[in-house]
Write a structure and sequence with these properties.
Elements (H helix, E strand, L loop, with lengths): L1 H14 L2 H17 L7 H19 L2 H14 L3
C-alpha cells in the first residue's frame, strides 16, 4: 500500500491532479492503521503521511493539514 501511495504522489507531482494527492493520503493513513507500533519502519510511514499532508497544505492552504503534518513529524521522532 505504501508503494501505491507513492505512485499516486508522483502522479500528483507530475500532473497536479489533487484527487491523486487525496488518494495517496488515504492510502498512507491505511498503512499506519495496519502497521504495528513496534514496526521498525513505522517512522518512515508516518513521515510519508506528514509529507503528503504538507503537500496538501501547499496546494490548498488548509492550515489543518499543516498542523497535522507537524504533529505527525513530532510523533515520528518518538519511534
Amino acid at each position: 500500500m505504501s508503494s501505491l501511495a507513492g505512485c499516486f504522489q508522483r502522479r500528483f507531482e507530475l500532473l497536479g491532479r489533487f484527487k491523486d494527492l487525496m488518494k495517496a493520503i488515504q492510502l498512507a493513513r491505511e498503512v499506519l492503521i495496519h502497521c504495528p507500533h513496534a514496526h521498525t519502519q513505522r517512522w518512515s510511514y508516518i513521515l510519508r503521511l506528514a509529507n503528503l499532508l504538507s503537500s496538501s497544505y501547499e496546494y490548498t492552504g488548509d492550515l489543518a493539514d499543516l498542523e497535522e503534518a507537524i504533529q505527525l513529524g513530532r510523533s515520528a521522532l518518538q519511534c
